[in-house]
Design brief:
Blueprint: H1 3-7, H2 11-37, H3 42-69, H4 77-103, H5 111-133, H6 140-171, H7 175-209
Helix pairs in contact: 2-3, 2-4, 2-5, 3-4, 4-7, 5-6, 5-7, 6-7
Length: about 210
């Protein structure tokens, strides 16, 4: 990167990378959802999700690298770094859940898994729209708030689903099943938590620039 690129705001490249980052998290969720609908060869699905998570990790590293090499950024450097960090956490949690499914030899998907994925995919769609809205700072106060509200609403659904799912597990009195499924559900719920974290960063950006 030359001196000119160092001092001129790199709006396009940072927004491109953020959009790519959330898209990769969305692809992780899509692949997990497809696994739930086609349980055969779960190891293949896990491998695909791992590859996407690795790409998301690389994209996050590229954002941090460019932050270190760019003097002026389109929004606060701290907010760009926080976005990169929490978006990466979404993909990490999805990858961890798929990994546990293989490690624990889970025989079939469960209704809570489908429920978490429906919530997660809806959240990521909202995040994708919210992140794209940052390209037009003058419209932030109109475009971002509805996405933030919906993401928080969906997170409340995920919290309730986790509580209900864990309660159902404990009713089975099967300690091995409880341990295995509870961990998977918690990773999926963690992914929805991280979506809420992204929404919180967008809220902070709105306060500063809206």
């Amino acid at each position: 990167m030359g001196f000119k690129e160092w001092i001129i705001p790199q709006d396009k490249v940072f927004f491109d990378l953020l959009e790519k980052h959330i898209a990769l998290a969305g692809q992780c969720a899509d692949q997990f959802d497809r696994m739930l609908g086609n349980w055969a060869n779960v190891e293949v699905w896990r491998s695909t999700i791992k590859e996407l998570e690795t790409q998301a990790d690389s994209t996050g590293h590229e954002i941090f690298d460019r932050l270190n090499r760019t003097f002026i950024t389109p929004i606060d450097r701290e907010d760009l770094a926080r976005l990169a960090h929490v978006v990466d956490d979404i993909a990490d949690a999805i990858d961890a859940a798929s990994n546990r499914i293989v490690l624990y030899n889970i025989p079939a998907p469960t209704p809570p898994m489908n429920g978490f994925l429906a919530i997660l995919k809806a959240q990521i769609r909202e995040l994708d729209d919210g992140i794209r809205s940052m390209r037009k700072p003058s419209q932030l106060k109109h475009n971002i708030p509805p996405h933030i509200v919906e993401i928080h609403r969906l997170e409340n659904e995920a919290d309730k689903l986790l509580n209900d799912s864990v309660a159902e597990l404990f009713a089975s009195n099967d300690p091995v099943r409880i341990i295995k499924y509870k961990e998977i559900y918690e990773f999926l719920e963690e992914a929805t938590d991280r979506c809420e974290d992204v929404a919180d960063v967008l809220q902070d950006i709105l306060r500063k620039h809206g």
